[in-house]
Every structure is written in structure tokens, then in C-alpha cells.
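C-alpha cells help. One example:
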Amino acid sequence: MKAYYHARAREYDDWWLGHNLYADKHRPGWDEKRAQLERWIEDLQPRHTLDVACGTGFMTRRLRGDVTGLDQSDAMLDVAREQVPGATFVQGDALELPFDDGAFERIFSSYFYCHLEEDDRVRFLAEARRVAPELVIVGSRLQSDEQAERWDERVLKDGKTNVTADDAYLKESMINPSAKVVKGFEKFDTGMPIYNGILNDSQIESLILYIKSLK
């Protein structure tokens, strides 16, 4: 998931705005609801606020006061710094916040908590309580016909809904990162460098071994 959002940084706000790939998505009243949410955020009292998983800063810019944004993706933060030049942005892990106890007056987070599995939700809430006395979360409201937890499939351009991240897949991703792309995203840069002709087979195998050693 982290790699997906990193690669989508320059186009991520299309989801908020209903542009390009999201232009034909059926979301009745979406623009009005988004505008209402923006007004609600603007009405929050100014605080020393940490926006966790701030992404491109699309909602960060609506916060008042001394604002810091945190995200794991440097690509997202590059966009955020352009959109919210008056805020401070830090790259870091939302589940291990790189701040002292009580460093902020408020934690704010939009459309992050709803992506977490239960164990990670517990970790995030513990970190939020440690760093600030106030927590504001924006996310999708659970509907009566929805499961509390689910995994959404991302269909690849070749029609497959999943891949096995074995040695062959890792090697293919280095040599031809566009080989397996989520359907509808073919025209976008994958965000991955192409190592074909740069690394030899031995070097690629060593890199694969290193990747597999990561936890």
C-alpha cells in the first residue's frame, strides 16, 4: 500500500477532485460533501496540530494554527510542501511518531485510520494519546451493508487481481516495472526506476536477497 500511494503522489488529489481516472466514478453529492468537510476543518479552533498521514496536504491546508504534516512518502511530502508552504512537513512512520510526549495540542488524520488493520489501529491510537491530548479523525462512515474490515482488489491491466511476490516477480519489477500495473493506471509513471542494462543478473539476485530480508 505504501508503494502504491508513493507512486500516485502527483495524481492523488484527483481522488478528492473527481478528475481523470475518477471523473466517471459515481459519487452522488461528493463535491458538496467534500466542501462541507473542508469548511468543518476550517472551523476547528487553531491549535498546534500534527496531521498524520497528511499525503499531499489537500486537507492540511484547511487546518489553522501551527501545523506540522507527517507522511511516510517523500513524494507525497514534495506535493504537500508546494500546496501548504506555511506548514512544516516531516517524513516518518505514523505508528511510531518521531515526536516527544505531549509535543502537540491536536492530532488530525484524514482517510488513514480506516485503512489500518486492528492491531495497527491500536498502535496508532496509543501513539496519538502519547503525543497530543486531542484527536480528530476523518474517515469513511461504515454503512449497514458493509463489513467493518475488508480488502479491496486492485485489478491489473492484464486482468489479474493478484500477484505472487516471488523472485521472478521481483526481478521482473526491476527490469520492467510497467509489466504489472493496476488497471487504469497504465498511463501513469510507476515511480520505479528501470534497472535493465544497469544491473547484471548477479547484482539483481543480490538485491532480491536483500529485499526478502526486510521485515
Notes: Residues 153-157 have pLDDT under 50 and may be disordered. Strands lie at 49-52, 67-71, 88-91, 106-110, 134-138. DSSP finds seven helices and five strands in the chain. The first strand starts at residue 49 and ends at 52.
